[in-house]
Amino acid sequence: MNAHTSLRTGDIAPSRAFSIIALVYAVSTAITAGLAWAVGSPFVLWFSDAPLLLGALLGCLLVLGILWDGLLISAGLLCERFWPARGGARVDPPITVKGVRRIRFFTCGPLPIPVLLATALCVLGTSNITLLNMKLLRDTTQWRDGFFWQIEAPVLERLQHFAIDVGAWDRLYHSAWGIETIAAFALVVIGRGPRLVLHYCVTLIVLFYVGRLLGILNPVMGPAFFQPAAFGYLEGSVTAEAMRQVGGILRLSAEQAAGRGGILLGGVSAMPSLHVAMVSITAYWLAIASHRTLFVTVPWVLAVWTATVVLGWHYMLDGAGGIVLAAASILLTRWLLRVLGPRTAPDASPQADGQPPGG
Fold it and tell me: What pLDDT does residue 354 have?
């Protein structure tokens, strides 16, 4: 059994998975808390909007699961009821209630939903790094947009001369987290193997902690913040309003911003692009589950990268940095989980490649 097959089919005890997530979170949080203490930045262990985030994610996963499983069961019942007999003999229908069990969401076991919720909480905790960045930007460091603008200005200044459907790019960019939730749901359904979900979740946590720490070393506002005149076509768009909200947060002190919740803080620095890195990571782990997903995910990654530039959130180099960061996060996660050695559940049995448990 090769490494990719073991990721798709390997089982793991839920307690082991939670202990790994908890360990990664504890180490990352301790590092962040230590850095915050060193520079006098506020540190928030539990943001006020954490219940909103967790509730929204849980609701989305449950609704998707109910709709998906309900559709499969209904298709199985209809086929079993109306599939005609052939040649006087009853022939098994192509879809049965028992047959679809192996691709239903709620037959994946108890691990996916709580691990995804724990991952969301860990990612929200990286807003403390945003507070740390804001503190340093007021006291010691400076934005470095001049360097990136000098390289990309010939391209970025020409964007305003094209007929750009800002609304379409807005919908793509700002739906990233919703699409990410659907992609995570698809990963659970397609991949089935608990180890694959664990690798995906740990990679996301590593990505956001490392990415936001890198943003402290190389703080970049983004082209629309640095040269707003070149992005006048954004006026009246969702992005323009979002940028005003972000600008309002940046004008606050780190202590004041901490009281606004973790969701609105987002990331202060644009380099590397966590948007591009996040969708790249998701595309990778979906490809491990099924190579056929690349026909959808590769255009998705390229479209998100383009949206970040067209809407002025990121420079083109930010997206390239995001892809490099995604690759590094995947490699680091693979090494980390080999070291931690996730053990299989006591009642687990090896599955054949492409044959998920159940059915």
Answer: 38
